[in-house]
Specification:
The protein has an eight-stranded mixed beta sheet with strand order 2-1-5-6-7-8-9-10, sandwiched between helices. Strand 3 and strand 4 (about 50-55) form a beta hairpin. Helix 1 runs parallel beside helix 7. It is built from nine helices and ten strands. The mean pLDDT is about 95. The chain is of the alpha/beta class.
C-alpha cells in the first residue's frame, strides 16, 4: 500500500471564483504534494473584484467538521484563513488546543483585496486573545500587521514600524511572524521573518505589475505544505515564497477583476517542455 502524503487541514471560507479561500488552499496544498483537508468557516458571495456578502456557518458545524477528520486522519499542519465570526474563532481555538503538537500557520484575513471588511474589531480582539498564542507562523501583510499590532496609546497619524509590529505580535504568543511587503513603497517586495530573538531572514522579490486575488492564501498554504513536507521553518518560508512568486508570474485574469495565481503553473511548464520535445 502506498504511503499517504502529508496532510494539511485548512480552516477557511469558500470562494466561488476559485481565486482565494478554501479553493486556493486546496489547489496550493495539493500542488505541493500534500493531501488537503477542508473545514469551511463561511460561505461568501464574491468574484475576482471583491466580496459582497459573508454568511458565517454555525460554529458547532465548524468544530464538528474538524473533529470528524481529525479523529480519522493524522494531520501534519493546520492552516487558518478567513474565519467569519467571534464564535467560530472560539470554536477553532478550542479544537486546535487539543492538538498542541501540530504546527499552525495563520493568514489573518482582515479585508479583501478591494478593501471589503472581513473581520471587525471584536473578531480581531478574539484572534489576538484566542488564536495568536497558538500560532506557529503568522503571515500578515504590512497593513494587517499594523492593524493587529495597534495599541490604544498609538498615534493614529503615525505608521508603526514593521519590526515593532512583529515584536508586539510575537509578544502575543506567535512563534514566528512573516510580514510581507507588497503594500510598502519599495522597489522590490521585501518579506521578513521575525522570531523572538530578531530577524530570521529577509527575502526580496521582483515586483509584478498586476493585482492578485488570493496571493496571501497561496503563500500561507504553501508554508503549511512545506512544513508538512518536513522542511524547517526558514526553508519553508523560502520555498513557499518562491512557489507563490511563480504562481503570480504565471497568473491569469479569468474575469473582470483581479488576476488569479496559477497554482498549477508547473503543469503548463511540463506540457510546454513535452511539446518542445515532440516538435
Amino acid at each position: 500500500m502506498l504511503q499517504p502524503p502529508p496532510i494539511v487541514l485548512s480552516f477557511a471560507a469558500n470562494d466561488p471564483s476559485g481565486g482565494a479561500g478554501l479553493q486556493a488552499d486546496l489547489l496550493t496544498i495539493a500542488s505541493l504534494g500534500c493531501h488537503p483537508l477542508s473545514v469551511m468557516t463561511a460561505i461568501t458571495v464574491q468574484d475576482t473584484a471583491g466580496v459582497d456578502e459573508i454568511m458565517p456557518l454555525d460554529p458547532e458545524w465548524v468544530a464538528d467538521q474538524a473533529r470528524a477528520v481529525l479523529e480519522d486522519m493524522p494531520v501534519h499542519v493546520f492552516k487558518i484563513g478567513l474565519l467569519g465570526s467571534v464564535e467560530i474563532i472560539a470554536a477553532i481555538a478550542e479544537v486546535i488546543s487539543d492538538y498542541p503538537h501540530i504546527p499552525l500557520v495563520m493568514d489573518p484575513v482582515l479585508t479583501s483585496g478591494r478593501g471589503d471588511e472581513l473581520a471587525n474589531e471584536e473578531m480581531i480582539d478574539a484572534m489576538r486573545e484566542l488564536l495568536l498564542p497558538q500560532v506557529t507562523i503568522l503571515t500578515p501583510n504590512s497593513l494587517e500587521a499594523r492593524h493587529l499590532a495597534q495599541q490604544e496609546n498609538d498615534s493614529g497619524e503615525t505608521r508603526l514600524d514593521l519590526s515593532l509590529c512583529a515584536q508586539r505580535l510575537l509578544n502575543m504568543g506567535c512563534e514566528y511572524v512573516l510580514i510581507t511587503g507588497t503594500h510598502e513603497n519599495t522597489a522590490q517586495v521585501a518579506n521578513t521573518l521575525y522570531a523572538t530573538d530578531g530577524v530570521v531572514r529577509t527575502d526580496h522579490w521582483k515586483r509584478l505589475e498586476n493585482n492578485y486575488h488570493g496571493s496571501g492564501c497561496t503563500l500561507a498554504s504553501a508554508i503549511a505544505a512545506s512544513l508538512a513536507n518536513g522542511l524547517s521553518v526558514s526553508d519553508s518560508i523560502l520555498e513557499a515564497q518562491d512557489y507563490t512568486w511563480h504562481t503570480l508570474q504565471a497568473g491569469f485574469r479569468p474575469g473582470m477583476g483581479q488576476y488569479i495565481p496559477n497554482r498549477l503553473f508547473w503543469v503548463r511548464d511540463a506540457e510546454d517542455d513535452q511539446n518542445g520535445q515532440d516538435a
